[in-house]
Amino acid sequence: MPATNQDETLLLHLNEAITTIREKDQLFQIIARKLRLIFSFEMMGINVFDKELLHKRLFFKDYTTVPSPEPPPPGADQFTPIAGSPVEQLLADPRIQHIALSEYVRHYADFEPFQRLLRQGIQYMTMVPLWLNGRLTGYLILATTRLPSYTHDDEALLEKIASLVAVAVNNSLEFEEVARREQQRTLQLNVTNALLSIKQREPLFRAVAEELRQVVAFDYFGIRVRRAEARGTYEGFAEFARPDHDPRAPLLALDPNRFAGREGEMASYYNQVADLLNHPGLYAGDDYRALAVRYPAMRYAYDEHHVRAMLVVPIWQRADGAAVLTLASSQPTGFGPADLATVQALVPQVALALENLFAFEQIEELKAQVEQERTYLIDEINTDRPTDGLIGSSPALRQVRERIGQVADTDATVLITGETGTGKEVVARAVHQASPRRGRALVKLNCAALPAQLIESELFGHEKGAFTGAVERRIGKFELADGGTIFLDEVGELPLDLQAKLLRVLQEKEFERLGGNRVLKTDARVLAATNRVLEDEVRAGRFRADLYYRLNVFPIVLAPLRERTEDIAPLVQHYLGTLSKRLARPVRAIRPADLVRLQAYSWPGNIRELEHVLEQAIIVSRGPWLEFGGFAAAAAPLALPPAPVEAAGPAPALGPAAPETPDNAAPLKTLREQERDHILLALRRTGGRVSGASGAAVLLDINPKTLEARMKKLGIRRTVVAD
């Protein structure tokens, strides 16, 4: 037998292997080879116990001379009860024991591991207890086909070896635990990433199931939900299965309506197992077989789907319903306690995913409802206008309709020009409604209605903290218009620095929020409008030439109302109907003579001015006819009392304006003179007021600040400002 030096050398080699080798199978195979240098045996095995000494499991097994050893059955590495097995006798006398299997089999005939050893020719086993810090942790087993002969020194050496093996086993178990926790953390991280990136029900839970399958093997993954109004029935919220139990095949989504017509039967099934669904549970092997005998639902799964193990984890139990996660396996030992712990650790994330999905689905329902309401309101709004919103049939308007038809179905940028009040926004809406983008939003922004420092935020949005008062992130108009159309009214008023940023959007379809550094993409079609002559603005250096050429891809020019007098009659009829309804006044007839005078007027304010004149007439009229006061009688702009408005230079008298005649030989005023006269006329009508509810800015439908800037540029001084 081995000498003392050999013993010490063996112990040194074992100790070195234990301290340097982390891989479990490699380490214990080295231990087995070293032991065979001194002891003769055909199989070495290690059994470990739990701390309570109630359960055991096979930790390691290695054969040498046994031909074609039987592989361990599935689940052999899972903990099983000690009670009722030969191990209970070893626990009663925890010392080195040499046992004959034939003797033990007489008392434990149903203990399959011993029967399997006997079939392989094993007759004897030497059982060496593993002690660690005074606690019994398992047994080292040396099995032989012949009766072994061990001396007292041999047993003393085995005890020393067992103490080293106990340390090695403990280290391996700790490494396994660390690996398991790391695996759980990785699983939770991957599931969290899925929750953050996927919002649809099936893709999200498919990703969760696939991640879980990397840690816990299963044939079925199901989340079933019972809503408060469902009266006990659990509906399939997300269910997946492996086709033909192939572990390499991707999961297949199960049809949630596969039990249609059997709702009553399924409700009965789930009511029977309600107690099982209320608590975490692991049912495998004989335990699941017992449930299949007791519950028809389990019997159905046992017979139809060959389920032999099931893991149940409640997600929540609340007054408004319940949710449960179920895993199923065709293997009797498919799940273990560690699998149950792993799934339970996922419950908070799965619950959050369910809550988010419920919220998203509710939002989608509300969104659909709002969209329907929006469609209804749009239909209501458009009932009093032609399909394209344009009223009239003059040659100029027919040409505009033709231009709209030519460009609407493209994504080309459109520049709409014309005097103020000619209906540029109506044309923009007509282009949008005739385009393939009509199902998305038409987002409008008046570039003259906001201070320069706020226009950029309106156009491109801003991040939280981008400037004082930016207490939250705000989405800009281009982001809102993604997939739709953006209408930039008064684009000629944009500051030069913003013109460069708008040019980038037109060229690259990208921008950045104010205060942000992330480049955002937009697929918004741009429609722009201005009452300025942009060519003059480019020559004056107030407008970028490159932006002008980008905007002026397809120009649509709107003629002033004085050049399409045949449209005045239909416009009058339209506004009489809509304004009378809005003002709750009866629709009164217009005298033919008054209509002629309206058609003879030059309308410097165009359609907007016509609308305001008709609105005033509807308000003051009391008889059967529409009354225009001094307007119709003079066949000219309404004579107004003088207002304290002064011009910084020669200005026309602030008395009644001279009647205009359609004399083609009369000299034409410049656009600047026409604009100046138009503003003076508005100021006369408002008594010199610029802002406020009755100010000239409202009459001209422009921002008061913009009007003041134009007055300053044209040399008009005001002395009255509304409170």
What does this entry show, briefly?
With 723 residues, the protein is an alpha+beta fold.
Structural overview:
The chain is of the alpha+beta class and 723 residues long. Strands 3-2-1-6-5-4 form a six-stranded antiparallel β-sheet. It has a six-stranded antiparallel β-sheet with strand order 9-8-7-12-11-10, sandwiched between helices. It folds into five domains: 4-178, 2-Layer Sandwich (Beta-Lactamase), CATH 3.30.450.40; 198-358, GAF domain (Beta-Lactamase); 395-554, P-loop containing nucleotide triphosphate hydrolases (Rossmann fold); 560-599 and 606-626, Orthogonal Bundle (Helicase, Ruva Protein, domain 3), CATH 1.10.8.60; 639-723, Arc Repressor Mutant, subunit A (Orthogonal Bundle). Strand 1 (43-49) and strand 2 (55-63) form a beta hairpin. It is elongated and about 135 Å long. This is Sigma 54-interacting transcriptional regulator.
